[in-house]
């Protein structure tokens, strides 16, 4: 019972300040990995992803905003439908190489609603001007 109260309180704390969205995450590394449900919280420099069913206060993944690129977009199919619903959108994400070229393969896949994807793309494209995009030479 105490763990349930802890999970509810943690989720409330993650979502109360805004800038949070429910989404699924999985690494793409050539192996079949399960989708993990969580809560993505937008920050200035990264998307912090927290597992829903965890009491751990730190994010399970931090996805840096700098150089983040959407590699592809698709609807869930085949094995995905064992864990996801058809109304979600799956996007592959990766990071630009040092030479500025886009990645050919995703590093992670995120699955989220169409509305959440719109928010994610807005966050990604609204990077504030200044030093974060300039090369650090």
Would you identify the CATH H-level superfamily?
A: Pleckstrin-homology domain (PH domain)/Phosphotyrosine-binding domain (PTB)
Question: Structural class of the secondary elements?
Answer: alpha+beta
Q: Provide the domain count.
A: 1
Shape: globular
According to DSSP, the number of beta strands is: 7
How many alpha or pi helices?
A: 2
Average pLDDT confidence is 84
Which CATH architecture would you pick? Roll
CATH fold naming? PH-domain like
CATH class equals Mainly Beta
Cross-sheet strand order for the largest sheet: 4-3-2-1-7-6-5
Beta-strand fraction estimate: 25-35%
The N- to C-terminal Cα distance equals 53 Å
Helix content: 10-25%
Query: Sheet bearing the most strands, described?
Result: 7 strands, antiparallel
Along the chain, the helix and strand elements come as HEEEEEEEH
Outline the low-pLDDT stretches: 131-137
C-alpha-based Rg, rounded? 16 Å
């Amino acid at each position: 019972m105490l763990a349930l109260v802890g999970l509810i309180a943690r989720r409330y704390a993650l979502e109360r300040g805004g800038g949070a969205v429910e989404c699924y995450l999985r690494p793409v590394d050539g192996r079949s990995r399960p989708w993990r449900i969580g809560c993505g919280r937008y920050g200035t420099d990264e998307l912090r992803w927290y597992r829903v069913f965890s009491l751990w206060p730190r994010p399970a993944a931090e996805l840096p905003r700098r150089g983040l690129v959407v590699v592809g977009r698709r609807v869930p199919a085949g094995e995905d439908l064992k864990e996801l619903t058809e109304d979600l959108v799956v996007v592959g994400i990766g990071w630009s190489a040092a030479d500025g070229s886009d990645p050919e393969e995703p590093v992670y896949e995120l699955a989220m609603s169409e509305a959440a994807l719109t928010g994610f793309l807005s966050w990604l494209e609204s990077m504030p001007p200044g030093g974060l995009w300039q090369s650090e030479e």
